[in-house]
């Protein structure tokens, strides 16, 4: 009986991540298609519209926005809807949280050399963290709270989109050669994944 249960759980461990990933991608593609299909059907002659054109259009639009956002003259335009959402009560919290999650998961706002090991006081234990701020930067609210030799370090938590920001002396950290996105993936998976 134990052998059967172990085999079932091992099978679930293999199948569930695949099924959930496929279902999330299917849901995302269906959303893209159903969102853009009516617009494309209205703009294009009936025989020109093919299933899947909504997905292609959405990806093309994403590429165009991402490419044009590099230029300062147009980049502010793409940030305008987000700024408006941040001013509307209720949507501010939802949009702000989702925006922050995407930024953290992409490692976008972290410098490449910002992954560190933080040594806990009076212990041999070290935690993987990402330096978010250094002390002494004027005009930055978090940085102004820090002393010159202090760092704000984000410590992500395993199996959770969250973590803690701690203030530590720079002497308690040791840089490691890892990109922030890799460190986040490694810590969030609890080190169990096949991160390479």
Automatic annotation (TrEMBL):
<feature type="transmembrane region" description="Helical">
    <location>
        <begin position="12"/>
        <end position="29"/>
    </location>
</feature>
<keyword id="KW-0472">Membrane</keyword>
<feature type="transmembrane region" description="Helical">
    <location>
        <begin position="49"/>
        <end position="69"/>
    </location>
</feature>
<keyword id="KW-1133">Transmembrane helix</keyword>
<dbReference type="Pfam" id="PF04367">
    <property type="entry name" value="DUF502"/>
</dbReference>
<keyword id="KW-0812">Transmembrane</keyword>
<protein>
    <recommendedName>
        <fullName>DUF502 domain-containing protein</fullName>
    </recommendedName>
</protein>
<dbReference type="InterPro" id="IPR007462">
    <property type="entry name" value="COV1-like"/>
</dbReference>
